[in-house]
Amino acid sequence: MTSLTFTHTPGTPRSAAEREQLLENPGFGNVFTDHMVSISWTKQDGWHNAEVLPYGPIPMDPASSVLHYAQEIFEGLKAYRRADGTIVTFRPRANAARLNTSAVRLALPEIPEELFVSAINELVSVDRDWVPSGDDQSLYLRPFMIADESFLGVRAAERARFMVIASPAGAYFTGGVRPVSIWLSEDFARAGRGGTGAAKCGGNYAASLSPQQEAAENGCQQVLFTDSATTDTIDELGGMNLFLVKGNDTLVTPQLNGNILDGITRRSLIQLAKDRGFTVEEREVTVSEWREGVANGTITEAFACGTAAVITPIGQLKAKDFSIDFGDAAPGEVTMSLREELTGIQFGTREDPHNWLEVIVKAEA
Length: 365
Ligand code: PLP
Ligand code: COI
Fold this sequence. Notes:
This protein has two domains: 7-169, 2-Layer Sandwich (D-amino Acid Aminotransferase, Chain A, domain 1), CATH 3.30.470; 180-347, D-amino Acid Aminotransferase, subunit A, domain 2 (D-amino Acid Aminotransferase, Chain A, domain 2, Alpha-Beta Barrel). Helices cover 26% and strands 29% of the residues. It is built from eight helices and 18 strands. Helix 3 (92-105) packs across helix 4. It is globular and about 60 Å long. The structure holds pyridoxal-5'-phosphate and 2-OXO-4-methylpentanoic acid (COI). The site of 2-OXO-4-methylpentanoic acid has 5 residues, from loops.
């Protein structure tokens, strides 16, 4: 079953001129490539019908479970074009594993790792011309799974569909790599004990949208969630993990507590920091500690990290009654050097000591 053969339905790809124009300044999540992948699943037949199709709308019965009960999960990873033309993806197997962890929590079927990786490779290969080559640009890949059984009873669906779409992308935050302001959500939580906080499911993001609006109204680009019992113990941002930097050699980040996403960027940075001989503290982290640490000079930097955000320096945490400001200290040195190291590995200007990259398209000799 892991060796499903993909059928290819050719569409009418956009012209090279149109593509070049779209790739000039794609932003994040606005532009989509010419194709998409779809693989069907039923309880009876398992995974079948693996297809590469022209990108476009998908037929959906209005009674499909995903439309009513949000039985949906997704992933995010990137393909990078290197100077020599090689195209690579970063840790796709970690995304496959995490999708399957989310699948178990959302009562969706697990997908074999090889099938997940083949789906990514098929799409990137057919749409290779859409992998941009500008500074800090990449092809953002969005695998997702939806329950599409037509049934209104509340139970795990017996029919699902796995798809991959691809979107050439630049920086997630407009304005490139500059410090962002973060809003502390005091009235809304994202996750609670036993909930879906550790899964990458659409419902978590739906719940983050009104706090995100509150953040925007307060001039902030992202929202910081604490655990549901306090407004002090930090979980993560709406779409990113959070790190504080102490001195020049210590990273502090909330431990995987069942409520936050096990970020692949987070995991990679923990490894790179340890390789440098840094101390990495994965533990409970509070806003009070952050506030006191900045006041007494022990906390020197903060950053957000994720596939879309890469590493984004945080300049300020704003709350209803106070703010924590790094002022001219942001972006900090540790933040920017970790960013340089991680992106160097991804774009091939640095060694890849942990074999995180998988080559999809080889450089032409
Ligand atoms: N936390 C949330 C809620 C996210 O949506 C993301 C993005 O995927 C992350 C953290 C970072 O995860 P990763 O580094 O795997 O992209
Ligand atoms: C990602 O980084 O892949 C995400 O899913 C986060 C979202 C803010 C786009």
